[in-house]
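User: I'm curious whether this sequence folds into something compact or stays loose and floppy. Could you predict its structure so I can see for myself?
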Amino acid sequence: MSLNREVRDWLLAGPAWIRYAVERQLLNMKPDVAPVLQDSAIQKVLARLKDGPMGFPALGTSRTSYTDTGNMYWDLFFLADIGLTAGDLGLEKEIERIFGFQLKNGAFTPDKRTQPNYYCMSTIMLAPLVRMGYQDDARVSRYIRLILDSRQPDGGWHCFEEYAQRSCPMDNQNVLMLLGQYEQYRGDPALRGAIDLLLEHWERRGEGWRPDGFGTGQRFTSLYYPSVKYSILRVMDALSLFPYAIKSSSFHSMLETVRRKSADGRYFAETVDSAYTGFDFGQNREPSRWLTFLVNRIEKRAQDCL
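Assistant: Here's the prediction. I'll summarize afterward.
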């Protein structure tokens, strides 16, 4: 499904950061990044990330959690989602602090509660770094080697290897988001086990199947951002990077579920977070250009795969 012209024009009428994401990722243009960096809402997020108590200064403490918003994990994730690089944002010095928490085996322990094998947490940081220009960094490559060597028998991942009978949906979702940034992994048959668990989880939604406590009910299908929980939008965002997943009927079933939430091609946030009230996904009175962009990005990947 190609981007509707009316929806496209509506998206492009939004703030500079929305226009930049749409032009760069949906329209394959090379827009000027300067207006984005001058946007006051983006400047506030960047300032919070650089100097705020939940930003980079919180590295090595227990103040941040990937299950909360308005912190280093999700501010970095959001800026990378827009398509901004570390160079654009002047974050190279701060990002070096992240690498200071890398162990010799490649794992990361960015806060006091993170164990080396908590891949569901560390990949939330590493995926944005790859998108921000660190794709070929040797330290990222070392982490990926560890990830690939740590798979469960079903091909996916689990934070607690000694207890796992199969991989965990949250781990698979987050690791696939990282690996999907690399062309050589998008078609890798070895990753199909991890993909299959996410697809099977959706197919068995009527059974109340909750591997590791993760379900596919109303909360899962709610549209919101950042998707800090295990949710349909982030599962589809990860799966849409892999042609094998896109070609499955389960993926298209998820996509149809999201499409049914559309109001003339626009999408509303069904849950909002006070940490992002300066953005349209931080309210639910009006349709969100950002959520609409994210759905259309998934649509574009699916269409490009055909």
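Summary: The mean pLDDT is 94. The radius of gyration is 18 Å.
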